């Protein structure tokens, strides 16, 4: 279902999509978007993994368990334990891999992902950008991919994801920052942007795991919500959008 702009405008308040008022000294507005199932269908990470296997950057056999978990994610989401298992398997798969070829593959995958952003989500992105807001994609996917997708959407958009440690041009198999999932998304957001007043920020997400981010922002919006988020959004009276 495509939500027409006039309907979107009625569901997401004009204040959330307008430039901040009050003069140059006032902080710039902030819009935070989750990526998978909020802006696009399925898992961006699964697409990157397949592309890395096809390009020979990562061995296909190292990706089998990962792709099974990602298929489950695309269908119904993952439990915290499965998320941790996924993180560990991916770090193991890229240990010793050169960063440069992975970046090249990520850039190619990002262009195709950006082209598939839901029409309604694209409208929201464009409105926030036109309003002069800082727009950020905040995802548990690799930082390299999230930033590449952000740039492919619009060069002014920033991407924040899970940072893997790189030493002398190769991945070590460890993280250099917290896994960008759940409450740790707020940690990663501050690491990349610095301290921000989230009371005036708008956040868009699909999963109950994103409740820490949604609750921290003054204007939370549920997009294609899972069961938990759908229930919380209804209880709290948050706007709920459905894109396909």
TrEMBL record:
Q: GO molecular function terms here?
A: hydrolase activity; metal ion binding
Domain of life, source organism = Bacteria
Q: What EC class does the entry list? A: hydrolase
Keywords (alphabetical) are: Hydrolase, Magnesium, Metal-binding
Enzyme nomenclature, EC number: 3.1.3.3
Gene3D superfamilies per the UniProt record, alphabetical: HAD superfamily/HAD-like (3.40.50.1000), SG protein - dephosphorylation function (1.20.1440.100)
Which Pfam families does the record cross-reference, listed alphabetically? Answer: HAD
Family, per entry? Belongs to the HAD-like hydrolase superfamily. SerB family.
Q: What is this protein called?
A: Phosphoserine phosphatase
Species this chain originates from: uncultured Acidimicrobiales bacterium
- Species lineage: Bacteria, Bacillati, Actinomycetota, Acidimicrobiia, Acidimicrobiales
């Amino acid at each position: 279902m495509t939500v027409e702009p006039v309907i979107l405008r009625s569901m997401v308040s004009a204040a959330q999509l307008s430039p901040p008022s009050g003069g140059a000294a006032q902080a710039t507005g902030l819009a935070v978007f989750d990526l998978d199932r909020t802006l696009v269908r399925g898992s961006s990470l699964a697409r990157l993994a397949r592309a890395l296997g096809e390009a020979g950057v990562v061995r296909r056999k190292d990706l089998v368990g990962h792709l099974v978990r990602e298929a489950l994610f695309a269908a119904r989401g993952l439990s915290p334990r499965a998320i941790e298992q996924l993180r560990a398997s991916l770090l193991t798969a890229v240990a010793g891999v050169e960063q440069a070829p992975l970046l090249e593959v990520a850039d190619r995958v990002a262009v195709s992902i950006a082209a598939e952003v839901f029409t309604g989500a694209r409208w929201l992105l464009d409105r926030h950008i036109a309003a002069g807001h800082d727009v950020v994609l905040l995802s548990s996917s690799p930082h390299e991919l999230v930033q590449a997708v952000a740039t492919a959407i619009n060069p002014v958009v920033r991407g924040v994801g899970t940072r893997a440690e790189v030493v002398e041009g190769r991945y070590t198999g460890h993280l250099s920052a917290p896994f960008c999932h759940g409450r740790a998304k707020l940690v990663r957001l501050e690491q990349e942007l610095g301290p921000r007043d989230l009371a005036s920020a708008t956040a868009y997400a699909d999963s109950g795991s994103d409740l820490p981010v949604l609750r921290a922002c003054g204007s939370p919006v549920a997009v294609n919500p899972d069961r938990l988020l759908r229930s919380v959004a209804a209880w709290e009276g948050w706007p709920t959008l459905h894109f396909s």
